[in-house]
Amino acid sequence: MEATQFTIDAARSAVVERKTSALALAEAHYERIKREDGQIGAYLTLCRERAVAQADIIDRMAADGKPLPPLAGVPVAVKDVMSTRGVRTTAGSKSLDKYIPPYDCTAVARLEAAGAVVLGKTNCDEFAMGSSNENSAYHPVRNPRDLNRVPGGSSGGSAAAVAADMAIAALGSDTGGSIRQPASFCGVVGLTPTYGRVSRYGLIAFASSLDHIGPLTKTVKDAATVLGVISGRDPMDATSADVPVPDYVAALEKPIHGMKLGIAKEYFAEGLDTEVRQAIDRAIGKLKELGCEIVPISLPHTPYAVPTYYLIATAEASANLARYDGVRYSRRARNVKTLSEMYRRSRDEGFGAEVKRRIMLGTYALSAGYYDAYYLKAQKVRTLLTRDFEVAFRKVDAILTPTSPTPAFRLGEKSNDPLSMYLADIYTVTADLAGIPGISIPCGETQEKLPIGLQILGKHFDESTILRIAHAFEQGQRRAEGS
Ligand code: GLN
């Protein structure tokens, strides 16, 4: 097996047993990036110096026979919305094309403290706004499984990097589906934790009450490992929860026999692609064979989720993006005559069309006279959506849905139609609105060999259960492929 095909366990064991070194692992990945990334476009910035310095620390620990941390020598990629000290961080925006953060995002710092080697920063939709990565101000990302198709968004670079073996694991961010949807489009595992599970310190804010950081990996076990490392209270983020972090990896082996899995009819309505539906039905059948009980449920407010999400997300974005005024942050327009012209032109030149659209929508929803009708109403509906899940979780342990209504679409197919792009998030935004965890795992492919993702949603702070179900399903798939 090539070093670039390793899972976390395989990579770490190879380093521990000194069959390879952290440096050799990093170099093998940089070689592959050099060969493959020209056509995929997953990375925006590589940080070789930082990677080599970190690999060196790990290799010296290994040489000294010291105990190695859980991600020792594992090459990882980080979505470019997470701040990295001394390494350019653009958020996919021209407005931050020269931004070098003076500090590290907590999730990144925790990865490195656990021995991971950060290879570089991955491409994404500008300020994480998008479902196809076509809103990156730099270049689009192509889906490694079919270069004419999008990798999903907004963590498209992270998903593509893992899918194309250009990183063993990656961090992404999910506000309305941006970890799970690209994972599903690229055929990898993507997990959005409970809101508050992982600190947002150092994450460039899109919509603060919805933003989550989480892993994209090749296997469910790898997702469990990364989640264990990045989770937990952080004094730098007041919304990070002081809830004990269980041993996610240990939880994987508990049997799933007898578990109750809910199927909500609202997630199988109009607009769901036939091949996706068939793959999800087969996945449900497999989980039944593994001893789970399938329970029909209803999440009645689901039809309001997309409009609710796009009101709240844009309102929060309009406030969060006010700081990019050419003074406090972001590039400043040149040759301006007045202060207001400086603000106007800096923002006009720095932001792309989708970001501007959202700032305008959000400012409108928050404006006096419309606040009650839009923003306040959306907050009320958000409570109803959260209650839907609370009621459902009294009856079931987890909920199964498709991750996305369609497989990966073609580049350009939806980029001129924002509304149809927004509808791609129909099955993912609900978890972000309710703050519950969700995981997307590969569960099959279309006749054209495009990956299809199964989404498993869980109770607040119960990532262990969804990881366990996902792991059992994945092992079942392996057995089936092997036989
Ligand atoms: N596609 C959604 C949006 O454009 C979700 C983005 C995200 O999760 N960051 O808002």
What does this structure look like?
The mean pLDDT is 97. Helix 9 links the parallel strand 7 and strand 8. Helices cover 40% and strands 13% of the residues. Helix 7 runs antiparallel to helix 16. It has 16 helices and 11 strands. It has an 11-stranded mixed beta sheet with strand order 1-3-2-4-6-5-10-11-9-7-8, with helices on both faces. The radius of gyration is 21 Å and the shape is globular. It is an alpha/beta fold and 483 residues long. The structure holds glutamine. Glutamine binds next to loops.
Report the count of strand segments. Answer: 11
Question: Reading side by side through the largest sheet, how are the strands ordered?
Answer: 1-3-2-4-6-5-10-11-9-7-8
For the termini, the CA-CA separation is 20 Å
Outline the biggest β-sheet: 11 strands, mixed
Helix content: 25-40%
Write the H/E string, N to C.
HHEHEHEHEHEEHHEHEHHHHEHHEEH
Bound molecules: glutamine
- Secondary structure tally, helices: 16
Principal-axes shape call? globular
Task: State which percent range the strand residues make up.
Answer: 5-15%
Rg estimate, integer Å: 21 Å
Average pLDDT metric: 97
Low-confidence stretches: none
Structural class: alpha/beta
Quick overview of this protein structure:
This protein has 483 residues and is an alpha/beta fold.
Task: Walk me through the topology.
Layout: H1 8-16, H2 22-40, E1 43-46, H3 48-63, E2 75-79, H4 106-113, E3 117-122, H5 156-163, E4 169-174, H6 180-186, E5 189-192, E6 212-217, H7 220-230, H8 248-251, E7 260-264, H9 274-289, E8 293-297, H10 305-320, H11 339-350, H12 353-366, H13 372-392, E9 398-402, H14 418-423, H15 429-434, E10 438-445, E11 451-457, H16 463-482
Parallel strand pairs: 2-3, 2-4, 7-8, 7-9
Antiparallel strand pairs: 1-3, 4-6, 5-6, 5-10, 9-11, 10-11
Helix pairs in contact: 2-3, 5-6, 7-16, 10-12, 10-13
This protein binds glutamine.
Residues 128-131, 154, 174-178, 206, 313, 425 line the site of glutamine (GLN).
